[in-house]
Amino acid sequence: MDFPVSKKWPSTPVKLAVLAILTLFVAFITVFSLMNTTQTVFTHFYYVPIILAAYWFDRNGVVYAILLSAIYLGVMYTFSPADMVVIAAAVARVILFIGIGCVIAILSMTISREQELVAESETRFRGIWENIHAGIILVDAETRTIIAANPEAEKLTGFSQKEMAGHLYHTLICPAEQGKYPISDLGMRIDCAECMLLARDGKKVPVLKTVTDMTIGGKRCFIESYIDITPIKDAENTLIAYIREITLRIRNPVELVRDNLHEIRDDIAGQTVQPAHIVTVLAIQEKDMDGILKNLQELERAIAEKKMEIPDALREYMKR
């Protein structure tokens, strides 16, 4: 079983204490071994502090390896000053110590840069995930369970991420029946489609929904994004109400004008109408037309005054 050494553990003072203890141990075992005419086996203990120092402190770890190698070389020279074979072997080991320290330091710096890039990418993703003005829900494509949800999704549904995680998507917030998930079960592509999102209080929230199929960590997932279009729907409903009101206020006078004009046409065709009667009927039509114009003028005045209950879409249309 592997036990990877983390650069984040322990803290710097503890790291220095560990290296100090290992250095003293290596120095002791070196002197003890040389005093007992052992010149090779103990050198393997040097790798432990050198590797740790290079991994924890990068370039400074290489400096430590050089200093420790110098100590080793000095001790070897002290015990065997005239034995050139021993000195040559010690120099070779020193080169190996420093080389290992350099390789580990380079690997350590590479790992540090990768960790920084990952941390920066995670920070950017977290900022987007938490601040984007769209609800995002991550769904397991195989089990249809919710994996995660961002704060905007929590706001839209009224459920917290902990409450949503692990629950079946269609039983919690989606009105679709089980086995009828559009993007997978029905083979449909959902791209900015209007649908309803079930909130905690049972209310259906109109949203613009987009679903993306992708693989995350070897697992197929659906990334669903929602944009609340309640204000748009409210404006549409208000616009429809105004159109209905306008239709009702104009339709009756127009129908009266139509019927009276038909009556005049029939009277003239039968030549039974008197000029005075025609004048009276036309005066009535004029009054009805004045009523129609008055209704339209009232609507235009309300738009010009920018009353809040007038939808922007209707206001812009009437200004044409």
Explain the overall architecture:
The structure is a single chain. The protein is of the alpha+beta class. It folds into 3 domains: 118 residues; 94 residues, Beta-Lactamase, CATH 3.30.450.20; 87 residues. 62% of the residues lie in helices and 12% in strands. It has 10 helices and 5 strands, in the order ααααββαααβββααα. A 5-stranded antiparallel β-sheet has the order 2-1-5-4-3. A hairpin with a 5-residue loop joins β3 and β4. α3 runs antiparallel to α4. It starts with 11 loop residues before the first helix and ends with a helix. The N terminus is likely disordered.
Task: State the shape.
Answer: rod-shaped
Unreliable residue stretches: 1-9
Largest sheet: 5 strands, antiparallel
- Which sequence of strands runs across the widest sheet? 2-1-5-4-3
Determine the number of helices (DSSP H or I, runs of at least 4 residues).
Answer: 10
> Which percent band covers the strand fraction?
5-15%
Work out the number of β strands: 5
> Mean pLDDT score, rounded?
77
Would you tell me the structural class of the helices and strands? alpha+beta
How far the N terminus sits from the C terminus, by CA atoms, comes to: 77 Å
**Can you write the helix and strand succession as a string?**
HHHHEEHHHEEEHHH
Helical coverage, percent range? 55-70%
- Rounded to an integer, what's the Rg over CA atoms? 42 Å
The number of domains is 3
